[in-house]
């Protein structure tokens, strides 16, 4: 559960209780308890998707699905989470993957944060947990395990689990605190943009 702690390092990696997206993002209602999280691959844009989400929508390729499964294994190795792939029929997984044409060239993917623990309502509605990868970006389209494109998959899953960037990279409104510059790098967290 991502709540404010007394540790600024932890707070720099998690959405605090007054995050702009919603508060108390979590896949488990009990802090410190493990959880099982389902995931699926969208075959078509969901009905609730906006026009921009439907723009150029495509399912992930078999190779991209394989990379996604590896990315979930990365998280399972370090978090008290079990990931289970389910069919996208009906509601699909709690985390769902698709691709579309993202208009901003520098955006490799985006996600919607998880639902608030113990709440029926979420600011992102049905889209909570959805991840879209940029179908126009070669780094994402041609990703292989270990390269930069692959880490985009891992990072977007991290966001869907409730983790944030440890820095304010685009000067947009974002909830701090942030890691000091010397600590904001991928050697400390995959959620960083800094090598």
Structure characteristics:
alpha/beta, 5 helices, Collagenase (Catalytic Domain), 5-stranded mixed β-sheet, 195 residues
Walk me through the structure.
The structure is a single chain. By secondary structure, the protein is an alpha/beta fold. The protein has a domain at 34-160: 3-Layer(aba) Sandwich (Collagenase (Catalytic Domain)). 22% of the residues lie in helices and 13% in strands. The protein has helices at residues 8-11, 51-54, 62-78, 138-141, 148-160, and strands at residues 35-41, 81-85, 95-100, 109-111, 130-134. A 5-stranded mixed beta sheet has the order 2-1-3-5-4. Helix 3 crosses helix 5 (148-160).
Intertermini distance: 27 Å
The CATH H-level homologous superfamily of the domain at 34-160: Collagenase (Catalytic Domain)
Order of neighbouring strands in the sheet with most strands: 2-1-3-5-4
Q: Roughly what percent helix? A: 10-25%
Which geometry do the CA atoms define?
globular
Count of discrete alpha- or pi-helical segments spanning 4 or more residues: 5
* Largest β-sheet summary: 5 strands, mixed
The beta-strand count equals 5
Low-confidence stretches: 18-24
Structural class, judged by helices and strands? alpha/beta
Query: Which CATH first-tier class of the domain at 34-160 would you pick?
Result: Alpha Beta
């Amino acid at each position: 559960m991502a709540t404010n702690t007394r540790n600024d390092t932890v707070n720099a990696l998690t959405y605090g209780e007054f995050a702009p997206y919603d508060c108390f993002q979590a896949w488990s209602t009990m802090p410190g308890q493990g959880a099982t999280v389902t995931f699926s691959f969208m075959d078509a844009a969901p009905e609730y998707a906006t026009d921009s989400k439907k723009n150029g929508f495509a399912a992930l390729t078999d190779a991209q699905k394989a990379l996604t499964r590896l990315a979930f294994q990365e998280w399972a190795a370090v978090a008290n989470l079990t990931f289970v792939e389910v069919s996208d029929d009906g509601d699909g997984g709690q985390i769902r993957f698709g691709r579309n044409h993202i208009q901003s060239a520098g955006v490799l993917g985006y996600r919607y944060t998880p639902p608030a623990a113990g709440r029926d309502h979420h600011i992102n509605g049905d889209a909570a947990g959805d991840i879209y990868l940029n179908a126009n970006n070669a780094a994402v389209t041609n990703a292989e395990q270990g390269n930069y494109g692959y880490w985009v998959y891992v990072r977007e899953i991290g966001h869907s689990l409730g983790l944030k960037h440890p820095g304010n990279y685009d000067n947009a409104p974002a909830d701090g605190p942030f890691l000091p510059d010397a600590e904001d790098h991928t050697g400390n967290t995959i959620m960083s943009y800094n090598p």
